[in-house]
Amino acid sequence: MLEITNQQRQHFEEKGYLMVPGLLDEEELSYYRAIYEDFIHNRVDASRFRSDLGGHVEEKNKTFVERITQIMVPSRVLPELLTQSLHEKTLSIAQLLMGDDMALDFDMLIDKAPYSDTPTPWHQDCAYWIDMPDKRAVSCWVSLDEAKIDNGCMWYIPGSHHLPMRAHHPAGKGGGALTCDASETEGIAVPLKPGDCVLHHGGTAHYSRGNSTSLRRRAFITNFRPKAMVDYERAQGMDHTGERKVRS
């Protein structure tokens, strides 16, 4: 049974992020790595939910198509994921940190291939979301590989979730990425071992360097907010797939 100590809860509340080691064991990692590769190599068709988070960088190498592969809502394509350990464990942690009413909002895969060397710009997740009366939200970032500084581990600006949201603007000409003014001098890097998890509040500013190494950097991410707010989003036509629904 997962437990969160008072010290861990206080760290999350104050700093806006929390590392939880060893969320997945080796057997679980093998399962998720296999599923991940099925998505990345199109053995599971999630093409309608696939995009390049690195599209903001001007293309120099015409042969490299995707710099940062993002696949939204993999559990919509493969519903069995909802009953497996990663979703169940991260939901449990989200509820322990932020309340029993926390529910899955969406999940996603983000892959930084070897030598793709494209940073994910500094941003706050809430910059992408519609305004909601209850702003509780947590993202659970589970590493399937060793995540180091030079292959793209997460960086956070401690306490940034307590301040007003920073001004965001498009990160570049291509893609839909947003960014805000921030730098590594403000932040702290959080390297992870395979199977570790780092959680962050929806208002915590974060970023990662590009993958300049020969290593993979695969992340499986679940995002939670109060069930009433998930319902509120859906009623407004927002489901995080990029397919905003128009309500009549």
List strands and helices in order, with pairings.
Blueprint: H1 6-15, E1 17-20, H2 26-40, E2 50-52, E3 68-72, H3 74-77, H4 85-98, E4 102-112, E5 120-123, E6 138-143, E7 154-156, E8 168-170, E9 178-180, E10 188-190, E11 197-201, E12 206-208, E13 217-226, H5 227-235
Antiparallel strand pairs: 1-11, 2-3, 3-4, 4-13, 5-12, 6-11, 6-13, 7-10, 7-12, 8-9
Strand coverage percent: 25-35%
Oligomer state of the chains in this structure: single chain
Order of helices and strands: HEHEEHHEEEEEEEEEEH
Rg value:
17 Å
Mean pLDDT comes to 92
Give the strand line-up of the largest sheet. Answer: 1-11-6-13-4-3-2
Number of strands: 13
Distance between the termini: 45 Å
Short description:
The protein is of the alpha+beta class. It has helices spanning 6-15, 26-40, 74-77, 85-98, 227-235, and strands at 17-20, 50-52, 68-72, 102-112, 120-123, 138-143, 154-156, 168-170, 178-180, 188-190, 197-201, 206-208, 217-226.
